[in-house]
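## Example record

The block below lists the input lines for one assembly entry, exactly as stored, with component labels intact.
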Amino acid sequence: MKQSLKLAGPSAAEKEFISRIEEAAETDIKLCYQCGKCTAGCPAAFAMDSPPRQIIRYLQLGLVEEVMGAESIWICATCETCSARCPRGVDIASLMDACRREALAAGKIRDKKVAVFNEAFLNGVKNFGRTYEAGLLLQHNLKTMQPFKDAELGLPMMKRGKVSILPDRIKGRDQVKKIFQRIETMGRE
Amino acid sequence: MPLGYYPGCSGEGSGIEYKMSTEKTAEMLGIELKELEDWNCCGATSAHNTKQLLALALPARNLAIAEQMELKTVLAPCAACFSRHRAAEIKAREDEALRSKIEGIIDMEFKASSHTISVLEWLAQDVGIEKIKEKVKKPLKGMKAACYYGCLLVRPQEYTGFDDNEDPQSMDKIVQATGAQAVDWAYKTECCGAALATSRPEIGAKMIYEVIENAREAGAECIVTACPLCMLNLDMRQAGAEKQYGVSLNMPVYYLTELLALAGGYSQEEVGIPRHFVEAGLYLNTLPAKAAQMEAEEAAKQAKAGKKGAAKAADSEEDTEAKQKKIEAMIKGFQKNPDKMALRLIKDEERAKILAEIVVSDEKKINKLAELMVSDQEKASKAAEAYVNGELKKREK
Amino acid sequence: MVAVAQHPNIELVTYAEVSKISGYIGNFQVQIKKKAKYVDWDACTGCGLCTEKCPTKKLKDEFDLGMGLRPAIHKLFPQAVPGKPYIDAGNCRKLTEDKCGVCEKICPVGAIRFDDQDQYLDYEIGAIVMATGYDLFGWEEAYGEYGYGKYPDVISGLHFERLVSAGGPTQGHIRRPSDGKEPKQVAFIKCVGSRDDTKGKSYCSRACCMYTAKHAYQVKTKIEDSEAYVFYMDVRTAGKNYEEFYQRALNEGATFIRGRVSKIYPKGDKLVLKSEDTLIGRPIEVEVDMVVLATAMVPSQGSLELAKTIGFSTDKDGWYQEAHPKLQPVETFSAGVYLAGACQGPKDIPDSVAQASAAAVKVCGLFSKSELATEPMVSEVDMGKCSGCALCVPICPYNAISLKEIQERGGHGHGPFTRMVAEVNSSLCQGCGACIPACRTAALNLKGYTDEQLVSEVDALCL
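Predicted C-alpha cells for the full assembly:
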C-alpha cells in the first residue's frame, strides 16, 4: 500500500546522509530535473521496485528511509549508462553505489543474495589476496540457502579447467589482509 | 620496453581462455608482457559496492608494485580490473590527500604515476591496426561478428577517455583487421548483467538474452568480447537464458584476443576454444567454406561489372569508329557539294555561297567543319559564320 | 515578402552578404557583396524554362534539407522573392567544365550571364537592424544514443515541416525518408539539444513545444489510424491561446508521455524507443515508423563573425546581446544597431514580429532627431600625453578609438610637424574602461572616473 507522504523537510540526520552521498559520488542531486532518461536507459530498471529516477526524487525530498529500504540500490549493476546519458551530468550510478554502501553499513540489506555475493567475494580476497571462485560460489550458495544453484555448471567448469578447487594464495596475502584491517579500524570513510 | 601485465583473478579460472589468448597475441605481436609480481585482486564490483576506500586501496597496491618494477604502462585485459585501476590512478592523481591516505593503508610508496590500459587501447592505439594486419596469417574472412564492448571499456568516459561511448569503433576495426566482418548493431554497449547474472540469475538472463538476440537480428553469427565477465554471462550462462526464454540461441562467443591469435596462426586448442561452453570450434571450421563462397560471389559480381565496363568501352570504341565514318562522309559532302553543305550551316543564302567558296580550296576548314558538324551542330554553325565574317573582312580590304 | 520587394522606399538586396562595415550610429559605411547569380534579374521573367531543361538534375535540395532534388539553375524555393533563379556555380557544367549552356540557349529573353561577377556596392547607412535568425543544432554529432544520424527515419522538426509542406519533396504527404511509405506510428522527442548541459545547450528553445503539438496534430489528422507519441519533460505553452492549442492536439488523440528517450535503435524496418513514463514510474518501450526530434535553436551560421565585424556583443550561447533583458530588448550596446527576432534569442513568430516592430520604431525614433544624447561617462584622450602607440585601438570592443593626425608647433630647432594621436568617438564609447589600463602614458581617462578622482576617493576613505 502506498501511503501518502507527510513532507516536513529533511531532518539533520537525513541532510547529513545526503551531503555524505553527494560527496562520495562527487555529484549534485539538485541538478536532476526528473526527466527519466536514466530509467529509460537502465538495463536493470525492469527489475527494480523504484526506478533510478525515483531514487533520486526520494533523495531530493530527503526521504532517506525509502531509499534505504529500496531493492533498486542492490539491483543496480553499475553499468554507468545512466550517468553517461544524464543531460544534467548527475552521476546516478555513483549515487546508487553510495546508497548501497550506506545501507550495508546500516545493516539495511534489502537484497541478501547480492550482499552475500559481495561479502563472499571480499572474504576470498581478504584471506588469499585473490578471488577464490570456487569458495565464492560455495559460500554464496550456502548462505542464500540455494545449495544446488549453478550445480549443473560445476562439473563442466572443472572439466574445462576453469575452476580450481584450492585457492590461489599470493605471497603478500598478509599485506592484503592488513589493508582490510586498516580500513576497518578507520571506521566510516 | 616490456609492457606491465595484470592478468586478473579470472585469468586462471573462469576467464582462462582470455589469459591464454592474450599471452599468445602478445607473443604474436612480439611484445614482452611483464606480469606484476605477487599482484592482488582489484576488488572488482564487490569492493566499490562495499567500501570506497577499499575499492581504491586494492588496485593501488598493484599500481605501487608496478611503480616499483618501473613499469609505466600496465595492460589489464579484464574490463573491470582496467576500470578499477584507472579509477584508483585518476582519483589519487587528482586528490593529494587521498593519495597519501592510500599510501598509509597499503603501506607502500604510491605515486599514482603509472597508466593502466585496456585491451582495446593496447591493440588499437599502442600496437596499431596496420601492425595487426601484418601479423594476420589466416584471415577470418567469412566471419560475421558483433563486437560487444559492454560497459566498463567505454564508460565512464572520464576514466576510459578512449573511443566513443555510444558507437565505439575500436574493436570493430581490430576485428576487421583479422579479415572478419564487424556487423553494425544497437546493443554494442548495453550491459550484460555483470554480477547480477550470478546473484540474481532471473534478472541477468533477460539482459543476456537481449544482447544475444539483438546481435542475431542484426545478422551476426558470433559475438566478440573483451571482458571475462561478459564472456561468462554470454557464454556460460547462455544455456540458462535459453531455458528461461524457451529458445535456442546457438551464438558462439569469442574473446577478441582469441580471434587475433587464431588469425595469427595459433590453433584452437592453444587459445582455449574447446573450453567454451557454447560450442565455438565448429563455427570457426565453417569459415573457409564461407570465405570461398564470398569470394566466388565477389568474382561473379566483378565479372558482371567487367562485362558491363567492357561493353561500355566497346560502345565508345564503336562510337569513335562511327564518328570517324560520319566525319569522312561530311568531308566527302563538302568536296562534292559544297553549296548544299554550306546551306546546312548558314541559313542566309548569300553568306552560304561565300562559305562554299572559301571551303572549296581549304582542306583544314573542311575537316574542322566536318568534325564540328558531327559533334556539335551549334558550334559548327558558329564556326561557319566566323569563317564567313573573316572572309568578308578580307574582301573589304 | 512580395509587398516588401515592391515597396518604393525599400531596396531589397537578395543573394548578398555584408562584406565591410565601418562608422558609427547615423554614419555607417556598409559594403554589400552581391554574389554572382549568372542570371540577369532585370531581364528574367521567371518563366522557369531554364530550370526545366537543366541537365544537372540530381543535386540535393538544401531548402528541402536534402530530401528532394533540384537542378543547378533553380529558384531557391517556390515562394522566393524575387521569384527568379540563380545558378549554383559549383555544380553548373558550363561554369565548371565549359560544356552545356542549355539554359542560355533556351532562355527566351537571353537573361543568362555566364560572365557574371560578384558586385560590391557601398551604402551610407544610418541604423542597422540585425535579423539573422537561427539555425538548428547539429544533433547528429552529439546524440549517439539516437544513432548519430545514421538512421534515415530519425529526422528533425524542420525535415518534418518540409514533409508536410505542399511545396515540399513529398507534396505534403508524410512519408518515411527510408522507403517512402506512410508511417503509422510517429514519435516526437522534445528537448533534443535544449535543456541539455552535457551534450547541447542549457537553454530552452521556446518554440518546440508548440510546433511539436502542431506536428502531432498533423500526424493524427493527415494519416488514418495513426499514433503520435510525444516524449516530453514539460509542455511550455505560455502564449495567448497556446494552452488551448496543445489541448487540441491531446483531444485529437496524440499520446503525450512524460519522459526522455534514452535510446533509439532499429528493429527490422521499425525503430524502437526506450523511455520511461515518469508519471506512472515504469520504463517503457515503443516501436514506431518514424521519429521526429525537436532540436535546439542555435544562432545562425556566420552570425558570430558578423557581430565581430559590426562590433557588438554576443552572449554566452552566441545570441546577440540585448542592452537590457527587460527594458531594452531590441537595442544592443552599440548605438545604432538594433535586434529583431531569433538572432537575439530563441523565439517564435508572434514574438519575432513584435520585436521587429519595436526595432523599426526605435530606428524611426533615432532618425527623427538630428542630435543624439549619450552617457557622459566616456573615455577621453589627453593629446598632450598620447604617444600615438595605438595600443588602445584594438582593445576597444566597440571600435570607438581611432588614430587621427594633429599638427604640432615644433621647437628646439625643428619646425612644425604632424603626428598621430588616439581619438575616442564619444557616440560609440560605452564607458567600459577597457582602454584605460592599456594606455602606457596615462593619456586616456574615463570621464567621471578619472585617475585623479579615484585617487581622491581612496585618500578620502583611507587617509
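The mean pLDDT of chain C is 93. The first strand of chain C starts at residue 16 and ends at 24.
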